[in-house]
Amino acid sequence: MTTQASVLENLAEVRAMIRRHKRNDFLFSIVGLLALMIGLLTLLTLFVDLVADGYPRFNLDFLTNYPSRRAASAGLLSAWVGSLLVMLVTFFSAVPMGVAAGVYLEEYAPKNWFSDLIEINVTNLAGVPSIVYGLLALGLFVYGLGFGESILTAGLTLGLLILPIVIVTTRESIRGIPVSIREAAYAVGATKWQVVFHHVLHYSSGGILTGIIIGMARALGETAPIITIGALTFIAFLPPSPVTEAAPFINFDWLQSGFTVLPIQMFNWLSRPDHAFHINAAATGALIIVVTLLMNGTAIWLRYRIRKNIKW
Known about the structure:
Layout lengths: L1 H53 L5 H5 L12 H32 L4 H13 L4 H15 L6 H25 L3 H9 L4 H29 L3 H5 L33 H9 L4 H35 L3
Helix pairs in contact: 1-11, 3-6, 3-8, 3-10, 4-6, 5-6, 6-8, 7-8, 8-11, 10-11
InterPro entries: MetI-like, MetI-like_sf, Phosphate_PstA
Membrane topology: Multi-pass membrane protein
Subcellular location: Cell inner membrane; Cell membrane
């Protein structure tokens, strides 16, 4: 009887502990949901406020006109073209190198203290404030290599900014691939390169692509490093076209051109006392948020589609 009573007592304690843990889980989920809703409502409120202020400028002329000293006729043409060209340089300077570095560190690098040191530093660099990259680019690209205050400098600066993000997301995506896929490929005689290229990269492409798009979205909204390297706040011309009508049909003069980007143009209009320019700045801010949300939404959609089409 004593043994049975002890068992029943222990069972009651276990049930009480389970109920207590379930209650704590429920309370934590409520707190987390409230925190999420507060963040989303704050963002939504700010976005609605920007849209309400900038609504009068939501038209095609705002995207096709050059900046002007008259707020009613000022536009974003040079800013969004500059952002597009800077993002182009950022993509080609950071993405191939970041993906290759992530694959090497995860699949080829020996597991020793040196690779651990590299991993720690890459992870830390992902959290470094963007202004630090601007100061680094100012000394290295502007003065050291003589690239000047150009699109090339801006693209390389933002490339350095998102490079650790691309490396970290690539490694995390590769780590999520089951070991059984590698073992099955080796079992049928595949080489190391074939396993990595045809299987590991194929199955991890969704996560890698998501990290790339999220990194590009962050670079699009960065202001501090672009200001540090001397981006123009007022520019009423476009860089030379990357494509020409004569052979070899490619022009690289635009890399050395002066530029401005959307956040810089927004900053310029906010710094002016005329309220009409503040309306332009609000419209620009809403546009940046919409583009950023579209890029993040595209990343989520692509990851879902890729994972849905892959058969494990």
